[in-house]
């Protein structure tokens, strides 16, 4: 049986990202195992079973082993892992949450991650996003489901200074968003 080769949907944009001059850098993040978790109640027993305390404050994320646990709603989280296969992560999380009435679904192919770094990241994002991204409001550990350009995304604040943001976008919108980011970044490629 032939093994299927996995290719990143943004592989064709890697040169354009690398050639982007100035104060904003865009990179496509590698694939990660991702599981959507639905769970009615989060308590110490659930946290112990999962090995991470799921964030209960709206619009936040926390480190979770080699990945992240992202709050998506009052009863929904996104868990990622860089050192487990999607099947391993789903099986582990499902066995942890099932006794508490929860569910876990592998959604690894659903979203692609982009990382924006540099002094003008907030400026680039502000051209197509209406939420307040000032570091006082959107620092490390913050998350937001919003639109960027016209694509639905999840933003994750990775620094307290606002110069490091992860953008999770549906795979089918990844090319559109890559083009949009390259265009939006042109205005901010050199310090004024």
From TrEMBL:
Stored InterPro entries: SoxG, TrmE/GcvT-like
Family annotation (Pfam families): SoxG
Superkingdom per UniProt: Bacteria
Name of the molecule in the record: Sarcosine oxidase subunit gamma
């Amino acid at each position: 049986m032939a093994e299927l080769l996995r290719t990143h949907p943004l592989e064709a944009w890697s040169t354009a990202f690398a050639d982007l001059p100035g104060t904003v850098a865009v990179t496509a993040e590698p694939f990660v195992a991702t599981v959507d978790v639905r769970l009615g109640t989060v308590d110490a027993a659930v946290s112990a079973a999962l090995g991470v305390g799921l964030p209960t404050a709206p619009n936040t994320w926390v480190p979770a082993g080699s990945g992240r646990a992202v709050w998506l709603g009052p009863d929904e989280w996104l868990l990622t892992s860089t050192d487990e296969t999607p099947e391993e992560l789903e099986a582990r999380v499902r066995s942890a949450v099932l006794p508490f009435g929860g569910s876990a679904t592998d959604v690894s192919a659903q979203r692609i991650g982009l990382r924006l770094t540099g002094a003008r990241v907030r400026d680039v994002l502000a051209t197509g996003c209406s939420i307040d991204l000032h570091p006082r409001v959107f620092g490390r550990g913050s998350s937001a489901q919003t639109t960027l350009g016209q694509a639905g995304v999840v933003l994750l604040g990775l620094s307290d200074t606002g110069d490091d943001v992860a953008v999770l976008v549906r795979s089918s919108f990844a090319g559109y968003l890559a083009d949009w980011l390259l265009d939006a970044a042109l205005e901010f490629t050199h310090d004024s």
